[in-house]
Amino acid sequence: MQFSKHHLVYLCRVVLIAVSTTLLFSTSITAAANHKWAPKQLNPMRSPTSQLTSTKNLLSSIHQLNDNKSDTDDSDFSPHYLTKKSHSKQTIQGLINHAPDMNPTMPIRSLSQRDYRTKENLLDTSYNVFHFSPKSMFKSHTAIIDVPSKTLKPIAKIAINKWNFALKTKVFKLGNHQTATLPIKFAQAASNNWDGLYNGQKILINERHFTDPKYPTAYLKPALASQMTIKRYWTGVMAHELGHTLGLDHTAYQADLMYAPTSNGNLITKYLWEKPVQRSSTGLDGTETARISQRDLDRAKLTQLLGYW
Ligand SMILES: [Zn+2]
């Protein structure tokens, strides 16, 4: 079956954690944190082994998709190409090995345009990035966003500004229904286990959760809830979903905006995880603080170089 890059759905959810004495005193921070941001499980019943198998199948599909890109393809002749030489796969693998895990620092972001084209698979699997959005979404590196809801709009504006400020470019702009390439809308979720969703075409926000004035803080451990605000949380959800539109899949670093507590549901991943590789200093997820980390930012710069936005 042909794998379609643009029919991907990200469900980013918060599971309600009942605040009870039992939970407060018996649940570790780990367990509580891990319940908050599980993304959609494409097949909830699968074991880690079958997850690995399906990830491998997915990667082989991706590789098939990209097999027609050869190292000798010079069709995209550009000034970048003229000034920078391309490297062997081994050389680039060496650069990746020397760079911090999941963080494409300057050496990885200084390759030739031809390298980004011909080593795309290697970079995708090394940095959990993928061409999620259709080319029509980003015209001249900008997506035009329509937010029909008056209550969602102020939150969307903050999330948009966060990415624009971090990337130092207007990657997201507010437009209207006619001009928009990326709608952000409320959805009446059939299932209650997600807050934000990106389906490759639009971002949906779970209206039932959004309109619950106590969500999510009243359902979290007080020690965590006291450090966050509801507005900042929803800004984080929106910014996280915008990150998916840029081609960013989840990471295992808790402070990242694109963090998820497990790799279940990732469409592409360097490795599987069931707990954070590194915890945040506050115990809050990056989404809950709505902060774009250096890793998030470097990955988004890489996806621009890869032509994903
Ligand atoms: Zn997500």
Automatic annotation (TrEMBL):
Residue ranges annotated for the Peptidase M10 metallopeptidase domain, each copy included: 147-261
Keywords: Hydrolase, Metal-binding, Metalloprotease, Protease, Signal, Zinc
Highest taxon listed in the record's lineage: Bacteria
Presence of the UniProt keyword Magnesium in the record: no
Signal peptide stretch: 1-31
Enzyme Commission number: 3.4.24.-
InterPro entries: MetalloPept_cat_dom_sf (IPR024079), Pept_M10_metallopeptidase (IPR001818)
GO function terms (MF aspect): metallopeptidase activity
Name listed for the protein in its UniProt record: Matrixin family metalloprotease
Source organism per UniProt: Lentilactobacillus raoultii
Organism ancestry: Bacteria, Bacillati, Bacillota, Bacilli, Lactobacillales
